[in-house]
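Hey team,

Filing this mostly as a record. A colleague (T.K.) asked me to run one chain through the structure pipeline before their review meeting, and I want the input and output archived in the tracker in case anyone asks later how it was produced. No errors, nothing strange. Just documentation.

Input sequence:
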Amino acid sequence: MRNLSASAYFEEILNIPRPSGHEDQIAGYLVHFAQMHHLEYEVDEYSNVIIKKEGTHPYKSDPIILQAHTDMVCTSIIASYDFLKKGIPWTIKDGYYETKGTSLGGDNGAGMAVILAILADTSLEHPPIEAVFTTQEETTMNGAKNLNYKHIKGKRLISLDGTEENKIEVSCAGMASMHITLPYQTVTSTKNSYQLSISGLLGGHSGVDINKNRGNAIKMLANMLKDIEDIEIVSIDGGSKENVIPSDIKCIFNTNYDLSGEYQFFKNFYQTEYENMKMDFRRIKQREIAIRNVDSRHLMQFLYEIEDGVLITNDVNFPLTSSNLGVVRTLEKEIEIALSIRSSIVGYEDFYVSRAERVARKYRLKFVLEDKKPFFTFREESPLRQLLVDTYEKLFNKNITLEDVHAGLEGGIFAGNIKNLDICVIGVNLFDIHSIHEKAEKESLERVFTWLKETLKNMP
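Output structure:
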């Protein structure tokens, strides 16, 4: 039996492959952990894992649910990096976990680590614990959607899926995911061939970073190419995930139009705002097979016209509704596009989904609403929230803030399945999540462990 620090568990988790939809290895790690510590556990067909720990002395209240998701967003600038077979090549620099060329997976590996440290420590005082580790949070949330809630008795939930230590997330946005395709025909082309690429943007989470003006590489490229009347696209590939702001794109296309003047203008224009951005435009060897002009024009007009970024804010400029044009890629017979819309306002998500569908049909693209994830709203009275606030301020002599979060959280699904659930979301200090610049603060892992430990000790 091992009793490790939260950071030590985090380091073990970083070494385990866990892309969304491929959580078997991390589930096996959790099962082994439960067996080593003689804890009750169960695993379902979605690789969700529930680990239960008895309270240290009689408690009159229901168990406390501690929750984290096991998957991560896999982003890399290393073309050959295989997230299915490799963990994360992490290092520690100036007190922060970081990596080179890939995302780190602090979301939600850090939360998992804190929960494991709680479960492993036999010196703690605590009520009965139901630790729930869900899967596919970063994609479909199928883990939380298909969890057997009859096996969960708690009415209080602390999710460790937050990204800032001194904040408690008290509501979240819902998210709609759309799959849009453009079937195309090819032609034999005699026009000049060019390659246009954009890279070096910061990217980031399409919820928490959407209002930080990080730039969208797909939209930038569409702005440059939308007015070329004779364009014939050869290939276009940009972005990585629907919930990641795209930081790069490359497009090969044919045209007899001289784009050099517009290219220089746009390059100067964007680099004044995004100093790390790199843009390259060059003539290349002739590509004889290209997508016909009408399909190419429809694609560029759609990418230009579809809404992206913050759409609605409140009176303190917090995003209430947003859109992220996350992916465009060339397949054998069609162009594939991934779009997501988030909102915490009833009805607004549906409104903007309908608008996106109209734009898609206008340019003869096929539109499918793939998934919808619910939101949860602020709870006026929350004994759990008050206990978390009081404990943190007493421990660290710092104020803690309550925050609505413009991201999809599994709390919405839990709230829909457990009546009158008291939900709070806390987390370790993470930076630039879902990007190759992602970092996690090592000392924050231990502080959050201490905070959670003291909170559990003082629960009624």
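Quick notes for T.K.: The first strand starts at residue 40 and ends at 43. The mean pLDDT is 95.
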